[in-house]
Amino acid sequence: MGRRKLEMKKIEKSSSRLVTFSKRRSGAFKKANELSTLCGAEIAIIVFSPGGKPFSFGKPNIETVVNRFQNRNQKRSRSHENGSRASNKKTQKRVQKLNHELINLDAQVESENQKNEKFNQWGNNCLFEGKQPIEQLDLNHLKIFKRQLNDLCTNSHSQVMEFQASQSLLLLANME
Amino acid sequence: MGRRKLEMKKIEKSSSRLVTFSKRRSGAFKKANELSTLCGAEIAIIVFSPGGKPFSFGKPNIETVVNRFQNRNQKRSRSHENGSRASNKKTQKRVQKLNHELINLDAQVESENQKNEKFNQWGNNCLFEGKQPIEQLDLNHLKIFKRQLNDLCTNSHSQVMEFQASQSLLLLANME
DNA sequence: CACTCTATATATAAACT
DNA sequence: TAGTTTATATATAGAGT
């Protein structure tokens, strides 16, 4: 699916192989997500790169699907459901708001999409607030945020996950 | 990728949904096989149809890949104190959801980009005109979103900030 | 690297068988 | 319910930044 037709054999050139792996892996995950969304199906993908690095995608999550497949429906441990981590109510509220806004934003954009004409004027009329193209930054933030989140989902290593979680929000915090 | 563009939501018509599931499932497996062949990667896919039927693909085979993945998780799990794994699962789930929201958002904007050249140069040639059209609603969502993200992380010095950042995503994970 | 930009190769939605 | 066809939508190879 590119400039040339690729032979279906291992790509020799290691640099190309790596690029292809990365592109196709994300392509595969996207497909999996679409399949799941469109058809209401549960799906899990596990890939090991040639270098041995694990990548995974799961919806609703890997464990559920894999366990179901292995007929080992282990019961969830609900004992930690809320733990001490949810103790900061202020933060919790904010996050809740944030989440709603995000959902609303998505719905809004979709709605505007249908009113194509108006949406097209978005960029013309509302970009600058004072001097700063704040909204543009927002979009970039969203993209970066998305990328970070994507990494979080892709990488199953919990420690890396938490690290990246911090990183992503720090990034957002530091960009202005 | 067909006669029409499909909305990324569950297909209502059950007959169409079934056809789509079948087609896309085989498409996904084919992609997985190609990825494996081209890059020398191990891969496993498990899918449950909406009806609950399991389908799977694995190269060299499912068991190998899944076991490799789970062994790795076991190691990881042992090195953690109790409870962290459960939270991480939920973090992953929540983050996945958010990610999907953002993917959709991004897709919408991208779609508009193609339709409207002006939008492509969003940040370059758009001047603030002081208008307050209806489309402003979208921007308000963006602004609020960003402000709240900032609020999450801006309050304190970097160490506390990082702590809160982690906490935020963990909270996201714990809220539904 | 991670991303962008195109020309091409593929996947697939609908319709039909 | 699975193939076949065909018009379109996507994915992505290769090259460049």
TrEMBL record, chains A, B:
Domain of life: Eukaryota
Record's keyword terms, sorted: DNA-binding, Nucleus, Transcription, Transcription regulation
GO terms, biological process: positive regulation of transcription by RNA polymerase II
GO cellular component: nucleus
Keyword Transferase belongs to the record: no
Region Disordered: start-end pairs: 72-94
GO molecular function: DNA-binding transcription factor activity, RNA polymerase II-specific; protein dimerization activity; RNA polymerase II cis-regulatory region sequence-specific DNA binding
MADS-box domain sequence ranges: 1-61
Pfam families: SRF-TF
Subcellular location: Nucleus
SUPFAM superfamilies xrefs: SRF-like (SSF55455)
Protein name: MADS-box domain-containing protein
Record organism: Chenopodium quinoa
